[in-house]
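User: Design a sequence. Structure:
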């Protein structure tokens, strides 16, 4: 069976590394991007099974990345989990409006993140 491919987009390398180690241990293939533009490019080039996306990113914020992908017929099927320290209800609502399938606040519960990934990659 082919491994599910997950793109992690966050501008903090330790966050990306921590998520990558956990997901690879669970059997996922992990791609990394460290700014919004790189995340959008890698999503379009690799068509991942799921994207974990920070909101506050250099070059292009996560809301714009999500919007570009969700309004493109070719990529709208990719589930997006926004994982961010922006913890206001209005931020979560904006995430949903721009296409996020789920919105998690940092610090996050790794088991909850894994549960969402499993749910969206079935």
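Assistant: Done.
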């Amino acid at each position: 069976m082919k491994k599910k491919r997950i793109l992690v987009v966050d501008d903090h390398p330790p966050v990306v590394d921590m998520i990558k180690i956990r997901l690879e241990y669970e059997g996922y293939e992990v791609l990394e991007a460290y700014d919004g533009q790189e995340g959008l490019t890698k999503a379009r080039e690799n068509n991942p099974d799921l994207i974990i996306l920070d909101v506050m990113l250099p070059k292009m914020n996560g809301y714009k990345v999500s919007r570009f992908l969700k309004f493109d017929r070719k990529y709208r099927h990719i589930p997006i989990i926004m994982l961010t320290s922006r913890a206001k209800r209005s931020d979560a609502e904006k995430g949903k409006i721009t296409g996020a399938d789920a919105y998690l606040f940092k610090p996050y519960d790794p088991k909850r993140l894994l549960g969402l990934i499993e749910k969206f990659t079935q």
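Residues 5-120 form a domain with the Rossmann fold fold (CATH 3.40.50.2300). The longest strand covers residues 5-9.
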